[in-house]
Amino acid sequence: MTNSGSWIVQRAAVTVAMAGCLVAVLIGTGLIGTSVDRSAGGALAAMAWGLGWIAVGRFTGDPGSVPTAVAAVAAALLALAAAGFARTRRRPGSGQGPANLAVL
Length: 104
Known about the structure:
Blueprint: H1 3-36, H2 41-60, H3 66-89
Helix pairs in contact: 1-2, 1-3, 2-3
């Protein structure tokens, strides 16, 4: 592989790693919000919607990136699972966990 080819491969690996880190930060933020407030499940559902469209764009559009698309699909599924879990985890008035941050 030539030096320019090596540079392109390294650049692509860094770009994919950065996209993965960004997705991880977004999902982490949503999970933290959900752990504090039951109503944050809507934010996770919105993240899943956006990540789904990122995946569609990376699978079908230009610039195409299969690793980014796969990471977006995985993160969208994780966000939907977390939103569902947040919805069923605490019931209002059940005494399970804080109702809001003001109590803490």
